[in-house]
Amino acid sequence: MTTATTTAAAIRLQESPLSPDTATRRHRQPAGEPWFTTLRAGQTVRIVDLEGNQAVDVIFYAAGDNTEHYSATDTLLRQGGIYLTTGSVLVSNLGRAMLTLVADTCGRHDTLGGACAAESNTVRYALQKKFMHNCRDNYLLALQNADVGLGKRDLVPNINFFMNVPVTADGQLTFADGISAPGKYVELRAEIDVHLLVSNCPQLNNPCNAYHPTPVEFVIW
Q: 48-87, pLDDT tens digit by residue?
């Protein structure tokens, strides 16, 4: 299968029938900041890219069992592809369906780029970048404040919603300009009770946020 065919097959645009007017909760997440919340089975969350090209780094955990979490490898094996879009099912390390992408107006979300950290910033960019705000530190701060028994050892590979990380023909990852735009969104239905660990990515060294982190919104039904 060619790269072009793979990319096309990974984009399944789908508008949502849900109206924000009927939502039970709306949360505006500031640029570059962490957040932790819980969804109950059957609830739906919409992540809205308010200004365009804002990477939203998320890890999912099964509420009530800290050993069960989103698994990138199980998810990619189950769906047979590396990008997420409408119809993708997020699978846990125990093989259970955690969430399903039920709507997507962006069309493709990254599973390979990972979360920026002090260490990766020094390796990818420069030694003096070590002390910049990053997603890994955001995660640790959010978990400390949540106080649900999750910590550093529980951090696993995350999803980068709205982030564009093409894979080259020789298997290299490239951090490219986003394909999202203001108002684009992705919507997920929880299949089980789940915790959402969020870093609204503060990265300033690559195009994932157009070099300018911006707020996003979470809408829950």
A: 999 999 999 999 999 989 999 999 999 999 989 899 999 9
pTM of the full predicted structure? 0.89
**CA distances (Å), origin 204, targets 8, 30, 136, 166, 219:** 29, 15, 15, 19, 26
Q: Enumerate residues 6+ apart whose C-beta is below 8 A from 123.
A: none
Contact by Cβ (8 Å): 99, 60: yes
Report the sign of the C-alpha dihedral through residues 10, 89, 32, 174, in that order: negative
CB contact at 8 A, 191 and 41: yes
Alpha carbon of 144 to those of 108, 137, 140: distances in Å? 31, 11, 6
CA distance readout (Å), 24 to 39, 45, 105:
12, 10, 22
